[in-house]
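Before relying on records like the one below, remember that each one covers exactly one chain. Contacts with other chains, cofactors or solvent are not represented anywhere in the record.
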Amino acid sequence: MDVMTRFELDELSTLIVGVIALFVGGYIRQNIPFLRRIDMPNAVVGALAVAVIVLLLQLFLDFNVVFASRLKDALLLIFFTTIGLSAKLAALKSGGKPLLILCAVTVLALVIQNLSGAGLAALWGAQPAYGVLVGSLSFVGGPGTAMAWAKELEAQGLANAQVVAVGAATLAVVAGALVAGPVTGWIVKRHKLHAAEGADSVVTFAPPPPAPEPKSGDSGLIESLLSTVLVLALAVLMGEKLNTYAREAGLLLPGFLSAMIAGVVITNLADVIKHPLEFGPIEKGGAVALQLFLVMALMSTPLISVAVIIVPLMLNVAIQVAATVAIAYFVLFRLLGKDYDAAVTSGGFLGFGLSSMPVAMATMDEVGKRYGPSPKAFLLITLAGSFFVDLANAVVAKVFLGLPYFSIVAPAAGG
């Protein structure tokens, strides 16, 4: 049997391929209505296209393309740092009791998703840590979060973690987008709900006090960008120091998690001293970092390995969808008062609980066009998604993976 030819790309070449894949993914999405409807990220579509090409080269030409990974790791830290920097704890005051209920139910969903995943892993005879990876990390977390944790778990000895993460998170995006809208419409029709009289169709948000506007002109823009770079670098450095101290204390934290915690500290300290950060450049930087990380991480995925575990992944999707829909309808909808706003909020919860925040917003927007606006639902979901969901998911996942039952004692085959 001939030895497969191996072609390794350096960091710059990998970045170029990744950026081209993003444009290709955007073009494909624009021309396939189904992909637009389910809000599949450009990075996922483009990366899968590259992965398919790599697979064809492997199967028919015995030619394997290997992508670099150091830049991808740096982008991961930057993305999670921006999540931390957006975590305004003062936002709790804007949402009041309904936001606290939504946050509490979100934690419940995180726990149930991980228990469901662990149960399936046990039935399949797989390492329990896979259950967390295909649980909240893939569904509430999405592809970016799933791939980040998969990298850490593989380093600890969980074989094929990134392959499992790709399959679970991609199926989650599709399933959530297909389920959230119809379930929300069913709730509205079943309970004969209507938008409140005189509800404004324009959604108004109540985030924490806005950061100062950047100065006008090129010099002001450059100063704003440099300030953002400084804050990001400071947060990453603080995260590294926190990680070192935690390791010395016997606590193993993923690098991206400690960077996110550092971001939380910095942004809330800035608010305390009345010098809030300019979030516009931070948000854009985080979006770019996420897209590049996703496309660079996913395009190197061996698709043939995902195909091998497709049966348990599909079964996992069915279990997770059933559990999350039950939580949305029997718990969240009722705790929020069983009115129209509660129904739309439940739809948004299904969006980010099974897929992503864009799916959550698209679901609520579509329901609003059909049955009437719900500014309250948009406010609650935006506040929860902007500062709480990712932090809660990281904490819950860390707690689960720290339990003896989930410890990774030896490399195990995925699925």
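The two ends are 28 Å apart (CA to CA).
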